[in-house]
Amino acid sequence: MACQSPRRSHHAALCSAALFALCATSAKAADQFRQAADGSSIECAVSARELTRFALIDDQFASVSKISSGTPYNDFAVTNEPLRGDVYVSVPETFAARAISFFATTRKGYVYKLACKIEPIPAVQVFIANPAIAQSKAADWERETPLSTSAVRLIQAMANDRAVEGFEVRQSANPPARVGDLEVQLIADYRGASLAGKVIRIANRGATQVTLAERDIAPADTLAVTIVNPVLGPGSSTTAFIVGTNGGSEQ
Hints:
Layout: H1 6-28, E1 32-35, E2 41-47, E3 52-56, E4 61-65, E5 77-81, E6 86-90, E7 99-106, E8 111-119, E9 124-129, H2 131-142, H3 147-159, E10 168-171, E11 177-179, E12 182-191, E13 195-204, E14 210-211, H4 214-217, E15 222-227, E16 231-232, E17 237-245
Parallel strand pairs: 1-9, 2-8, 3-9
Antiparallel strand pairs: 3-6, 4-7, 5-6, 7-8, 10-12, 11-12, 12-13, 13-17, 14-16, 15-17
């Protein structure tokens, strides 16, 4: 039976502990991503010894409001960087509290409360996104043309796998559904302010040729639909693009 010397065993244990601590620190120091609405509270973690950067996606900080303790050794500092509109927070080693909080107003008129725990992590970044901003950008894109024309533009974007400004794109992991000899699977879901688009894969699992019609796959509120190859031989597949109104429901 092989045995390790106490010295080697102790060294291995120290290495394992150090590796675990390094991994744990790296995980905690990862960039933080938060979603927020106007007037909401954002929870996060700030570095106890280094800088923490707060950055807004598609917006910039305009001003920050906080209570000053009157004693520099027991107060955290907030610096507004004017070029990019970011905010940097630093906490002195003598700071007694275990958390900080402050209010921030953005250049687009949103107000957030930031409530953050102080943790022994390296310099970290906190990215904040407001879905209302993306909705506004999606609405602007949709209003560039009449709604029916915008629906066709969305189909063109989906067919070419292009991002659409302000639209949320979600890839689906749902398994295909069987409808007779046809196998139907949702591939991607595009959601804007007024429009919602779907990318669907259709496969013929039967032994005979099938001809697809737009009315067979499009619901009643459809604004535009395109089937790449409507004639499916046995074992073949095609892609369909469907655009309707965005009712805000999860499907």
